[in-house]
Amino acid sequence: MRIEVESPEQLGYEAIRHNLAESSVSDMCLADYGIDVDVGRILLPYGDHLGLKRLRELIAAKGPGLSADDVLLTAGAAAALFIVATSLLHEGTHALVCSPNYATNLETPRAIAADLESFPLAFEDGWRLDLDALASRLRPKTRLVSVTYPHNPTGSMIDRETLKRLVALVERHPSALLLVDETYRELAYGEPLPMAASISGRVIAVSSMSKSHGLPGLRSGWLTCRDPNLMETFLAAKEQMFITGGVLDEELTARVLEHGGETFAQITARTETQLAIVREWIAGNEHFEWVEPAAGVVSFPRLRPELSIDVDGFYRALFEDHGTYVGPGWWFDQDSRYFRLGFAWPTEDELRGGLAGLDQAAAASLV
Fold first, then answer.
1. Are residues 220 and 286 in the same domain?
2. Residues 267 and 193 in one domain
3. What are the CA-CA distances from residue 341 to residues 80, 128, 288, 324 (Å)?
4. Among residues 10, 21, 12, which one has the least CA distance to residue 326?
5. What is the extent of the structural domain holding 197?
6. What are the distances in angstroms from CA 195 to CA 42, 61, 363?
7. Which parts of the chain have pLDDT scores under 70?
8. Closest of 238, 254, 303 to residue 81, by C-alpha
9. What is the predicted pLDDT for the residue at 1?
10. Is the CB of residue 106 less than 8 Å from the CB of residue 116?
11. What's the rounded Cα separation, in Å, for the pair 36 and 144?
C-alpha cells in the first residue's frame, strides 16, 4: 500500500508545514514524563524473551484477571500484529477484517496468501459496527476476526456491551479468534473499554506506547492473550524474529507507566482542545463532511460527494501550494475523496493553518 512510501517520515518532516496526517499525539520526550535517567548505568543483556516482567505486570494490572504471563512485549504494535497474522493464518484460512483499517492489518494476511475478506464500515451508517452483518460473513475456515477500537482512521467507537457481544459471537464459532487492536484504548472520551483480553481467552489484543503516549521511538508494544498455548506460539514467533525486545526500551517504558499519569492527563486535555478546533471548522463546511470521532486522535472526513472536484488536483494543491499533508483514502484501501485527519499531533497553529489549507485547496480544485 502507498502509505509505506508516502508516510511523513519517508517524505521528510521538513517538507511539511501543516502535518495533519499523523495518527498519534505529539511526539514526546522522556523529560515530558518527568523521567531523568542515566542510561549509561543500565545493563544491556539479552532480556526475558517475554519481555521485562515489571513492565508486563504494569500492563496486566490494567485488565481484571490478567497476569504478566498473559503479556508478550513486542517492537511496537506492528510487530504484534505481524506475529499474530503469521502465527495463525496461512493459505486457505479466512480472515475477516473490518475496513477501513491500518495497512498492517490488511497487508500481512494478503502477503501470506490468507483468504482476506474486508468487512466494510460505512460513512452513511456512522462507521457503525453491525454485528448481525458481521456474523453472516463467518465461514467454517474463519480463523481470525480483526477489529480496531477506538478506530483508526475514523475515530469511531463501540461500547462495552457491543464489545462483549462481539466476543460472544466469536466464541460461538469453533475455529475463530478475535483480534482487537486497542492502541487508542486510553484515549477514550469517557470511560475506556476494558482490555479485550480480560473478557475471554479467545481474544488477542495489541497495543503500544506510540499513539496515545507519543513515544513511537521507544518501539514498545505488546499483545495480551489468556490462552497459554497461543502465547507459547506467539513467543516462538517472536524468538524467530528478534529473540528478545530492547532492554533499554522496556526499562524506559516501565518508568513512563510508573510515573507518567499527570502528563497523560495533559495529553487528554490537549486532545479535547484540538478536537474542538476541528469540530468548529467542519460545522457547516461547504467542502467537507465527517462523522465526528467518538474516541482517539484521528477522523476520516470526505470531500462532499455532490461536489465536482479534481481530486488529484486537490491533493497536489494541498501539499504544493499550502504545505498541508493528510492521509489520503488510498492509504486505507478507500476512495480518494476520504482522508485521515489527525488533530492531536500538530500544534494549534499548525492545525488551524492546515484546516485553512484544506478549504483553499478544495476551492481551487472545483471543476
1. no
2. no
3. 25, 19, 12, 11
4. 21
5. 40-259
6. 31, 10, 44
7. 1, 4
8. 238
9. 65
10. yes
11. 42
Unique residue bearing C-alpha cell 516482567: 53
* Coil vs helix vs strand at 363: helix
Q: Are residues 244 and 319 in the same domain?
A: no
The answer to whether 353 and 324 have CB atoms below 8 angstroms apart is yes
**Close Cβ partners of 311 (under 8 Å, ≥ 6 residues apart):** 303, 336, 337, 365
CB 106 within 8 A of CB 141: no
Three-class DSSP category at 142: strand
Q: Are residues 16 and 158 in the same domain?
A: no
Q: Tell me, what's the pLDDT at 134? A: 96
DSSP 128-141: ---HHHHHTT--TT
Q: Are 179 and 266 contained in the same domain?
A: no
Domain assignment present for residue 354? The answer is: yes
- Please check whether residue 145 lies inside any domain of the structure: yes
Residues 146 and 287 in one domain: no
Which of 234, 259, 284 represents a domain boundary (last residue)?
259
- Look at residue 13 in the predicted model and tell me its pLDDT: 79
Same domain membership, residue 174 and residue 86: yes
183 within 8 A of 327, measured Cβ to Cβ: no
pTM, entire model: 0.94
Task: Quote the radius of gyration of the chain (alpha carbons, Å).
Answer: 20
In whole angstroms, what is the distance from residue 332 CA to residue 337 CA?
12
**Under a CB-based contact definition with an 8 Å cutoff, are residues 52 and 247 in contact?**
yes
The DSSP symbol for 30 reads: G
Give the dihedral of Cα atoms 19, 104, 310, 278; nearest 10 deg. Answer: -40
The amino acid sitting at 189 is: Y
C-alpha cell at 71: 503479556
Distance CA 91, CA 81 (A): 18
β-strand partners of 188 = 295
Q: Residues 6 or more apart from 37 whose CB is under 8 A from it?
A: 30, 252, 255
Scan for cell 487528554, then name that residue.
268
